[in-house]
Amino acid sequence: MTESPATKPADGDVCQRVKNGLNLEKNGVLKSLHRCHEQQPKHHCQPEEEEVHAASHHDSQYNRPFLESFEETPMLVAVLTYMGYGILTIFGYLRDFLRHWKIERCHIAREKEEQRDFVPLYQDFENFYTRNLYMRIRDNWNRPICSVPGAKVDLMERTSRDYNWTFEYTGRVVLDVINLGSYNYLGFAENTGPCADSAAEITMKYGVGVASTRQEIGNLDRHEELEKLVAKFLGVESAMVFGMGFATNSMNIPALTGKVRTQGCLILSDELNHASLVLGARLSGSTIRVFKHNNMQSLEKLLRDAIVHGQPRTHRPWKKILIVVEGIYSMEGSIVRLPEVIDLKKRYRAYLYLDEAHSIGALGSRGRGVVDYFGLDPCDVDVLMGTFTKSFGAAGGYIAGKWELIEYLRSHSHSAVYATSMSPPVVEQIITSMKCIMGEDGTTIGCDRVRKLAENTVYFRRRLREMGFIIYGNEDSPVVPMMLYMPAKIGAFGREMLKRNIGVVVVGFPATPIIESRARFCISAAHTKEMLDRALSVISEVGDLLQLKYSRRRIQPSLSLPCDDIVFEDIDD
Ligand SMILES: Cc1ncc(COP(=O)(O)O)c(C=O)c1O
Fold this sequence. Notes:
Elements: H1 13-26, H2 33-37, H3 48-58, E1 68-69, H4 75-100, H5 128-132, E2 152-159, E3 168-179, H6 194-206, H7 221-234, E4 238-242, H8 245-257, E5 265-270, H9 275-284, E6 287-291, H10 296-309, E7 320-326, H11 338-347, E8 351-355, H12 370-373, E9 383-387, E10 397-401, H13 403-412, H14 414-417, H15 424-438, H16 445-467, E11 473-474, E12 479-485, H17 487-499, E13 502-503, E14 505-507, E15 517-522, H18 529-546, E16 553-555, E17 568-570
The structure holds pyridoxal-5'-phosphate.
The site of pyridoxal-5'-phosphate has 14 residues, from helix 8.
């Protein structure tokens, strides 16, 4: 595990922690803090010297330890992974040859005979990966579930007679699979309890559809109540809600930096930003520059260049500079270095757009997201965005901030003007779950869930590390990527886990770099200790079977250690 240079332990803790480090190093057990940085792969870390500098420069901005880990891919594993892809590619070409000569049956979508002279609509070459690699393990995705996506889930069993090109349902249901895949962070994806009851009740009164936009006749009293509640929850002046999280990003970024209204806008975007943010930035027609993931030197360099050089050719100053980041990155499990981003945006007078899709509800002692997690002022973020699909067990998204911002979006955002408004049961699910988190339902259920999620996260991550898996991301992130690397292990891991009644999400290229395939676990407050222990023992068993315990660092198993004092040692090859 590595420790971020930006660590600022609580009062008086710095010396203690370094002292601990030195003592243990004397015993030959612990790597010192700065040596830990050497372990980070290039794209995740800043040069070591600069990192140390960043630590001393920025530590006062952090009110808590910031522990993030990206253990380097072992060399042998990297070589074997590339070889695996090489072999798959050779077989792919061979099979394409057989398909071309009609020796092997071809299932892919392609032009009909009479369209032979057309430019192909389905680009064969681009589909090479899908046809020859993805199809082999396609059974791991799009599995239909037939229950609420809670801590346990029921799956429809299916088989394929043609190597995953088509599937048939056997009619059987795989019951009570422990669900480590859904983004049900606070366990509000439920079909019983106050949220489900209020959603059912409102459906009886308002129906399901709204059949109009907010601007026309689709503006319900419940929408207005929800917006007031969201603003109160986040501690800002105003908020607006939208029917779809993806569209909240892709339609509102163009409204803020769109070409039509203001030419000369610059968007500075983290390289791992979600597709909806990327699409929004592209649709805006603004100039987009990408900085390295969570790398403040890279962001500062872009900001400095933008101020010094201005726009290309004319060198006139940029009209607007918008920094776009996420709270928790859903593939890496990393948490944005928000205090530093805010500092930079203030120094360079840029605006900040923060997507809290995965962090709202899931981070912070009060569940108010990454702003709460770092104890910052929400007013320091110009545009707060989030979705209701994860922690609230509902659908849709919000934009929150200053009153003027929201009033502007109400009339300029395509998703506000042209999209049908949010469905009443969805609105009610969000209102009820949000009030629960705020304690406005008169119980401590929401608070307890926020705390339980944090505990489950730390426990699950620590146990996986102790077992010797390579885990990416921040200690406090409920998104837990576990590295699989090799293409053959993606499918094998998903299948072996399901055989043992554990449902997981596996991810590979193009969603990750080609050699960094992984399983992505999502921890929930609804997971009991027994469920996590069962899942962990199965992961360990499958990990041994498939040889997935790649980590060269071994944590000393110790349940008494607080999460930020975990020690590890290097295992020599
Ligand atoms: C960071 C981020 N933003 C936006 C979205 C889109 O949200 P939704 O799935 O609610 O449409 C997602 C989806 O997972 C996401 O991860």
